[in-house]
Amino acid sequence: TFFSYRMGYFIYTLLMIYLMTKEFVLREEIIRKTPVSRFHKMPNLLEQVDGIIVTIDLKNSEILFRLRAKNSSSTDYVSHWRNETYQHFIEQRAVILSQAGDEITAFFAIESLEDEKAVYQRVFDSLEHYDQCLEGFQSECAVKLFNFKFSYRTAIIKGSLRPYWEELGETRVPSWTEAGTTTALVDVHRYLEMEKSLNTSADLHMAVIPAELLDHILILYPQVKKKVLFSHAKQTGKHNVVYDVSALNIGISIGRQRL
Q: Fewest beta carbons within 10 Å, which of 30, 58, 190, 203?
């Protein structure tokens, strides 16, 4: 009947409105929960932001993932570590570029009018907190994980990035890409991979760093010299690219030392 047809059309219209509203609310919720840096909130996005990029990778995390998989009630130590490190990076005004699995990459932008020393201080303060997290986890896991030793590897480089909005379907996501003449996002992972061949000790927390950058840090903080493991070592990376590499024993003590 005509009434049934109109009623069916009315219900169909309400259903479509509901689905469209639900999709809009979901999209807005995703945007709201996506971390937005202060650089993405600017009316005109900067073409280049200089700073320090730090990538931290938790070693032997496969053991922790397997422990979690075997026992659903077990503490998710990797997630716990990642959340703690994430929060402290944010407190140090770093921008989180990525946090997947057992790895976090953060960007410490050199603020306008900020002393360059203050940027490196923020980096080392974050590494100090990272060490403290591992100390706490080590004590907590001593019984459950027996002789499992928490350790990590780090890469620190200087580079330039550019903030932009990436279009994913109908959602805009804050993202970063390389700027200037640097390939910072690629290089930081190349340096991180070099740690595998350079570090033969499970107890050594090594930070692999471009030799030129370490030389600059030593000018600002001469006391760091005693923590240098080696400097200006030639390492061949992918595509036979030769890197001039140095390394710090970042450990616990260097982070707690006020630079």
A: 203
